[in-house]
UniProtKB/TrEMBL annotation:
It comes from the Archaea. Residues 41-135 form the Methyltransferase type domain. Coiled coil: none annotated. InterPro entries: Methyltransf_11 (IPR013216), Methyltransf_Superfamily (IPR050508), SAM-dependent_MTases_sf (IPR029063), UbiE/COQ5_MeTrFase_CS (IPR023576). The keyword Methyltransferase applies. This is Ubiquinone biosynthesis protein. Keywords: Methyltransferase, S-adenosyl-L-methionine, Transferase, Ubiquinone. It comes from Thermococcus pacificus. One of its GO terms (biological process) is methylation. It holds the Pfam family Methyltransf_11. SUPFAM superfamilies: S-adenosyl-L-methionine-dependent methyltransferases (SSF53335). One of its GO terms (molecular function) is S-adenosylmethionine-dependent methyltransferase activity.
Length: 202
């Protein structure tokens, strides 16, 4: 079963199952949202955990590959009064023109994308030169003990439940494509906040 099918089967129940864990990261979501401005693309919006923290001044375009999750996010955006549009779309094949956005956002998404490098290339493509990329991601820990005792068992469970990969080095992929301006490592690197830029054209 693909990750799309797994998330589709969860639908609104995802809030009850994963919500308590996701809310543990609300402080980091709030911090990440401070770096968001202009015309914004959020990939993998899910049920909209980032939405309460966005400024009402941004123009938000949010995508997700799972329509059932997107419907929950739409309702949340309406309740919050956000200027937002939602699209059923795959992060690996974005249907936007080159250099469309001032900011791109990914919050706990790259651990589930089947081909993360292809998705990173797409984010790079649709971001304007000099634009900002905001990543808040689960990543492989800097501590081997944490990887073996926590992340590997969690990887087996979450991989079965929602196709999640807790051992990806998304931070290395960000460094490959963007100029990192700020990075925070939390819980021995299990969670990282990265603020980066797409280089200006010469």
């Amino acid at each position: 079963m693909s990750f799309r099918e797994k998330y589709a089967r969860l639908g609104e129940r995802y809030e009850r199952i994963d919500g308590p864990l996701e809310r543990f990261f609300d402080t980091l979501r709030r911090k990440a949202a401070r770096f968001v401005s202009g015309e914004v693309l959020e990939v993998g919006v899910g049920t909209g955990f980032m939405l309460p923290y966005y400024s009402r001044e941004i123009e938000l375009h949010a995508i997700d590959a799972v329509p059932e999750m997107l419907e929950v996010a739409k309702k949340r955006a309406e309740e919050l009064g956000l200027n937002a549009r939602f699209y059923v779309m795959d992060a690996e094949r974005l249907e936007f023109p080159d250099e469309s956005f001032d900011t791109v956002v990914s919050a706990f998404v790259f651990c589930t994308i089947p081909n993360p490098e292809r998705a990173m290339k797409e984010l790079y493509r649709v971001l304007k030169p000099g634009g900002r990329a905001v990543f808040l991601e689960h990543t492989k820990s800097d501590c081997r003990l944490v990887n073996w005792l926590l992340l590997k068992p969690l990887d087996l469970f979450l991989g079965w439940l929602i196709g999640d990969n807790t051992l990806r080095e998304t931070h290395r992929l960000v460094e490959k494509y963007f100029d990192v301006e700020h990075e925070e490592s939390h819980y021995s690197g299990v969670v990282r906040l990265m603020i980066a830029r797409k280089p200006e054209k010469i």
